[in-house]
What does this fold into?
Amino acid sequence: QVQLVESGGGLVQPGGSLRLSCAASVMRISLYNMEWYRQAPGKQRELVASITPSGSTNYAESVKGRFTISRDNGKNTMYLQMNSLKSEDTATYYCYGVNAKRPGVAYWGQGTQVSVSS
It folds into this structure.
């Protein structure tokens, strides 16, 4: 059974850092466009960052310069390094993988909570 399992969330003060991980089982992330989404209470889920199999990255304007997405195909894991965190970054963060050659094949993780507060 394909699984994406996020970890690394928690409570951090404004200006702090966290690194989220998304570990995949069964699926090989090297074949997938991998993405981080987040959803704050009462808001729609939004795309935060994405990385293609070739390593090309894209970021939402709100996180550019602060967040870095990366992947380790050998560990079958994707990461999101989050620096200079702000209260508005508070949300549940989800990883998502869509097969680069078969877009109908896609998987979500269960989410990890990030809270930024003093």
